[in-house]
Amino acid sequence: MEHSFLIQVLLMLVIAIVAIAVLRRLGLPAILAYLLTGVVSGPSGFHWFTQHQMQSVAELGVVLLMFTLGLEFSVPRLWAMRRTVFGLGSAQMVITTLLTMGVALLCGLNWVEALVIGAAIALSSTAIVLKLLNEQGWLRRRHGELSVSVLLFQDLAVVPLLILLPLLANGGEPLMLADIAFALLKGILAFFLLMAFGKWALPRIFDEVARSRSNELFVLSTLVVALVTGAFTQWLGLSMALGAFMAGMLLGESQYRRQLEADIRPFRDLLMGLFFISIGMMLDFTLVMRFWWQILLILVAVVIGKALIIHGILRLVGEPFRIAMSTAMSLAQVGEFSFVVLALAVNYQLLDNEISTMLVMVAVLSMTIAPWLVRHSVDIAKWVLGIRQAKHVDEAVPLLMDEHDLVMIFGYGRVGQTIARFLKTEAVPYLVMDLDPTRVSEARRAGEPIYFGDVCKRAMLKQIGVKQAKMIVITFCESRSLEEVLPLCKLLAPEAKILVRTKDDSDLDLLKKAGANQVIPESLEGSLMLVSQVLHQCGVPLARILKRLESERRNHYQFLHGFFSGTETDFTLESLHAVALPRGADAIGKTVADIMWETLRVELRAIRRSGAEVEHPEQDWVFRAGDILLIVGKPRRLEKAEAKLLHG
């Protein structure tokens, strides 16, 4: 009998390995492989195991998952993101839960079942969304930040759900306010007791464990702490996962956080795999086949409904249409914590197995399409935006006639419009591209040469004739978009000068390597403009002020960084100085190589001759009368270099 049990366990693990390998090749998450393994090895398949047999071990996976979630819970990070986390996140959870409850109540379910279903549907997949956003490089983009904020609140919202579910399982008796108050009191008591234990005992325990330099002892201590705190909250009548979360939160601020997370991860992943296998065992395919069209209908309603709710909330708070739609598509699925909620609800007999099976299938299918939705969220947003835009703006962008001084402005916010006004005043031809349909429509009605389009698309740049541009000005500050558009502009318009506006100079070197000829950090430029006004009011000549500003820009704003310098620091700046060579100057007839620039400790930046400027001339360039040499260096060295060039 024992031998047969071992064979069944091994076969189940083999099925899990094969399923994970196949689904990974298809770009699908491992969670689906575990669910498939549960279906095959459970009552709907070979019937090797039942969900009840797996329940005790699988619950440990949830405990360790909540422990690692507590480790990642950072109070400073939460406080920094409080507006989007508690504002947007709470609005999404409350509205989605209430609307789902309303639909469930209309379908004849009681309010407890409706609440469980609403909470499960409101949650999204943290694991899938964060992984895909990171792979796409979108975590720092606006829709990525909004998605992370909502997911963070959803993870926190699981904690009160863990308190509420055991409370709802009161044998069918009506839920009283006194019961809720008592449960909250127990939760607060557990929190303070664990806080006291965590602040006083846990640091000392792990200090001793770390001094032993035993990896086995460290791992064992981590597991014991997670399970003991879980057992303590379970003894109080609460969930084990709640205690594990509190323990993780207490250790999350310690110096051992990274090591704890690394040690617990293999156990967490293995036990969470068993948990999802146990969820798969709950699936009854006779029910699935009987209610297949209801499952598909619920799936469509959930994905579209969640997307519309999130999109509507973001639009109400003033987010652009494209960002709101991208965020909504990223969060439209049902998450892994929904399985936890549904499993606990079935264990506490709060939900019928039939309803649970249907919701689990909806969650599985939504997580199956989640990778595609997240990867194409931006494209979907642009496609929907294009349909809306077609009603107001002609999508066809006419090819431009050849213009010698054409300036292309990408982005038509305040900065782009200001640039366009000055260009118009000087009769310089320009063309503008922007992604805001309202702005494009208003500007076109005013006669502006503006078109709707995404400048990150190669085909769009070709269609507007970017190769004819003498200068390209990029006024938006999204780093990811800049990384996409700069190489395209450099490839399609190699002769054009590219100016990029940024908020600061954190990515200055990277942007220049990507193709930008000049990067203008608006925060530092604002500082320089203020300095110029101060110096001008103090009586400093305008020519000297302009030299100072130009020198600062060429030195990458180094004077605006690193104060608290030593007493011997030289605050003088390198300057750009022009030296005109009259007839009889010592340098006339000599080549660039003949001048000892290294000895003079100055740099020859460029030479102007007959109105033309040659940057970094060749070593065999011969100086002639009338040449203007642009040299860079400290003021005293420039004086010596000028004397050497003129008088020898």
Brief overview, please?
By secondary structure, this protein is an alpha/beta fold. It has 28 helices and ten strands.
Helix fraction, binned, reads: 55-70%
Distance between the termini: 103 Å
Strand content: 5-15%
Radius of gyration: 33 Å
In the predicted model, the low-confidence regions spanning at least 5 consecutive residues are 389-403, 557-573
Content-based structural category:
alpha/beta
What is the number of strand segments?
10
The rough form would be described as: elongated
Structure annotation, total helices: 28
Largest sheet: 6 strands, parallel
Side-by-side strand order of the widest sheet:
3-2-1-4-5-6
What does it look like?
Residues 404-521 form the RCK N-terminal domain. Keywords: Antiport, Ion transport, Membrane, Potassium, Potassium transport, Transmembrane, Transmembrane helix, Transport. It is a multi-pass membrane protein. The protein is α/β, with parallel strands linked by helices and 648 residues long. Helix content is 64%, strand content 8%. It has helices at 2-25, 30-41, 51-72, 75-80, 82-106, 111-122, 126-136, 142-168, 177-200, 202-212, 215-235, 240-251, 257-281, 285-290, 292-316, 321-330, 336-347, 353-375, 377-390, 414-425, 437-445, 458-463, 479-492, 508-514, 522-537, 542-554, 597-600, 635-647; strands at 407-410, 430-434, 450-452, 471-474, 497-502, 518-521, 575-580, 603-609, 612-615, 628-633. Strands 3-2-1-4-5-6 form a six-stranded parallel sheet, sandwiched between helices. Helix 8 (142-168) packs parallel to helix 17. The longest helix is centred in the first third of the chain and has 27 residues, at 142-168. It is elongated.
